[in-house]
From TrEMBL:
Stored InterPro entries: ATPase_NBD (IPR043129), D-XK_euk (IPR042024), FGGY_C (IPR018485)
Catalytic activity: D-xylulose + ATP = D-xylulose 5-phosphate + ADP + H(+)
EC code(s) of this entry: 2.7.1.17
Keywords: ATP-binding, Carbohydrate metabolism, Kinase, Nucleotide-binding, Transferase, Xylose metabolism
Gene3D superfamilies (UniProt xref): 3.30.420.40
Signal peptide interval: none
Family per similarity comment: Belongs to the FGGY kinase family.
Naturally occurring in which organism (per UniProt): Sporothrix epigloea
Pfam families, per the entry: FGGY_C
Protein name as annotated: Xylulose kinase
Domain Carbohydrate kinase FGGY C-terminal: start-end pairs: 322-544
Enzyme class: transferase
Known role: Highly specific D-xylulose kinase which participates in the catabolism of xylose. Xylose is a major component of hemicelluloses such as xylan. Most fungi utilize D-xylose via three enzymatic reactions, xylose reductase (XR), xylitol dehydrogenase (XDH), and xylulokinase, to form xylulose 5-phosphate, which enters pentose phosphate pathway.
């Protein structure tokens, strides 16, 4: 532990993700002082019937988690922190808590939520200490929180996509208008369509709902013992927030609520949104002071979504990109330019007004790679990825053989995908490697489980490269070379940072570097699997220690952050030859996706 970390204030970052609740505690010098985690399947799987942290109803496409699970997990993670050797001392020094939570998920509070929450602020005299689950047993109008993997809302999404369209315009005008207004076209998991479906399917629950939280504002509410507002970044994952006006979009509230009159009731349920990502929302509820010994001085800073928190895990510069390889795979960049498009997402930056986060989110990330891995013979050296990685590295770029010069392309969707919106399925194509011409479904012998391993990683990276093109531009690296046009590099990110469980995989790092480039290389964040919890902890620190509202997160954290020990270069990134090879088939990859999308849409409309 660094000297500065043995005294002074500490900051706690939570990450309530799909499969775990993690906690990281840092000191003012950013050193990590303590960590704990709860694994939903291992700790509560049989009690709640969970698989990979959620419950799925395949007939409807519903994916959800019990709110009681979240409450039990919060108690357990505090208990685990307290049980650490330095636990009691560390908990007493925490000055602020912030955190990150799975985006889009929503929690439905009943009419007496405020009173139940206020019970957490009361000092208990009973020797039988109640749990969060006990205190909040009657606080909710629905016991379930929809998860971001839910895909039950196609009917609602169709309505969202159509709602802002001008009557005379083409059919893609609606999604475009929605993306221009809210930062995203309609997506199954976005909270607006989710709320609309809950109103349709369970009108009584909806009527009894007094307040709707995102998972981030839900956790903040529990810690505060009062209803916390949504935060300025996570609110952009709802399809309801007008980003240019920074206010709720009235026509979309009306659509969700069912009428103009009902829209004001929905606005009341959603509450105000906190524009400032920093500062304090209030002191921690006495429940946590009494039960776990947290300091009563501890402040609750605004929580945000897990992806917005990931960009806070290190000071990002323009043109740096983050690839988060968790249950979902996400590609993130920060930009001052708001350039929305129906195929991706723009969100407000969680701490810096005027900046935006660009995001691509893939459902078929880690779990899809696992499925391909499991078609290969099992490994014997204890590393479950050894054979997969060998297959990736032994297969040439795009599986091109000297014999036919054909590039192999594919889509591997084990569950229905977000980008693009295509149901589960596997598709394999080939095209001419030199220019992407002659795109056609592949003959069955063109692919094998061995080539699939490389192709699935390439396919995920090609999709990211295709869609992030508007955000990158060609440039000359380094001042000293700016007069030398020969050193001008093609458009690509500067650094690609890998976070999440998959960031430990060297073969994936290499393919991402080959496809996406990265003029300064590919780096792994040392706390790769905990990046969003760390971002939450840094956010709590900035929220309290910023000089004033004008000291930005990047200024403050940038002064204290050192790359040594925090990041590790895992791949060279830009390789001119391979980068050009992938560039030659990018158009064909786009065309393949469009073809499959059109076929799948035709099937859907024919039903
Ligand atoms: C982002 C998304 C996922 C979840 C994962 O839009 O749905 O990345 O945030 O928890």
């Amino acid at each position: 532990m660094a000297a500065a970390a043995s005294q002074g204030p500490l900051y706690l970052g939570f990450d309530l993700s799909t499969q775990q609740l993690k906690a990281i505690i840092v000191a003012s010098d950013l050193s990590i002082v303590a960590q704990a985690k709860v694994d939903f399947d291992a700790d509560f799987g049989s009690k709640y019937g969970l698989t990979k942290g959620v419950i799925a109803n395949d007939d409807e496409g519903e994916v959800y988690a019990p709110v009681a699970l979240f409450l039990e997990a919060i108690d357990l993670v505090f208990a685990r922190l307290k049980a650490l050797d330095n636990g009691p001392e560390v908990l007493a020094r925490i000055r602020a808590i912030s955190g990150s939570c799975q985006q889009h998920g929503s929690v439905y509070w009943g009419g007496s939520a405020a009173e139940h929450l206020a019970n957490l602020q009361k000092t208990t005299t009973s020797s039988q200490a109640p749990t969060l689950k006990d205190v909040l047993a009657d606080a909710f109008s629905r016991p379930w929180a929809p998860n971001w993997q839910d895909h039950s809302t196609q009917a609602e999404c169709d309505k969202f996509d159509a709602h802002l369209a001008s009557t005379t315009a083409s059919s893609d005008d609606g999604p475009r208008k929605l993306a221009e207004t809210t930062g995203s076209a309609a997506h199954h998991r976005f909270t607006g369509p989710q709320i609309m479906r809950i109103r349709r399917k369970w009108p009584e629950d909806y009527a009894q709902t007094k307040h709707i939280s995102l998972v981030s504002s839900f956790v903040a509410s529990v810690l505060l013992g009062s209803l916390a507002p949504m935060d300025i970044s996570d609110v952009c994952g709802m399809d309801l927030w007008d980003i240019s006006k920074q206010q709720w979009c009235e026509p979309l509230l009306e659509l969700t609520a069912g009428s103009a009159e009902a829209a004001s009731d929905l606005r009341a349920k959603l509450g105000n949104v906190r524009i400032d990502g920093g500062g304090s929302m209030g002191s921690i509820a006495s429940y946590f002071v009494e039960t776990y010994g947290v300091s009563p001085e501890c402040q609750i800073a605004p929580f945000t979504g897990d992806n917005p928190a990931t960009i806070l895990a290190l000071p990002l510069r323009p043109l740096d990109a983050i690839v988060s390889l968790g249950t979902s795979t996400t590609f993130l960049m920060v930009t001052p330019h708001y350039k929305p498009d129906p195929s991706y997402h723009f969100l407000n930056h969680p701490t810096t007004p005027g900046q935006y986060m660009f995001m691509l989110c893939y459902k078929n990330g880690g779990l899809a790679r696992e499925k391909v891995r499991d078609t290969l013979p099992p490994t014997t050296n204890g590393d479950p990825w050894a054979n997969f990685n060998k297959a990736v590295l032994d297969t040439p770029v795009l599986g091109v053989s000297d014999a036919d010069r054909k590039a192999k392309l594919g889509l591997y969707f084990y569950i229905n995908e977000i980008v693009p919106n295509i149901p589960a399925g596997t598709w394999r194509y080939t095209c001419n490697a030199a220019d992407g011409s002659d795109l056609a479904p592949a003959a069955s012998e063109a692919h094998s489980p061995l080539t699939d391993a490389r192709e699935i990683v390439e396919s995920q990276a090609l999709s990211m490269r295709l869609r992030s093109q508007p955000l990158v531009h060609d440039y000359v690296p380094g001042e000293e070379t700016s007069s030398n046009p020969k050193l001008r590099l093609p458009a690509q990110p500067r650094r690609v940072y890998l976070v999440g469980g998959g960031s430990l995989n060297p073969a994936i790092a290499q393919v991402l570097g080959e496809v996406l480039g990265g003029s300064e290389g590919v780096y792994r964040l040392d706390v790769g699997g905990n990046a969003c919890a760390l971002g939450g902890a840094y956010k709590a620190l900035w929220a309290m220690e910023r000089r004033d509202e004008h000291e930005t997160f990047d200024e403050l954290i940038g002064k204290r952050w050192t790359p040594e020990g925090a990041i590790e270069k895992v791949d060279v990134g830009y390789r001119p030859e391979q980068f050009a090879q992938y560039g030659q088939v990018l158009g064909a990859f786009d065309q393949m996706e469009q073809t499959i999308l059109a076929e799948e849409q035709a099937k859907r409309h024919a039903k």
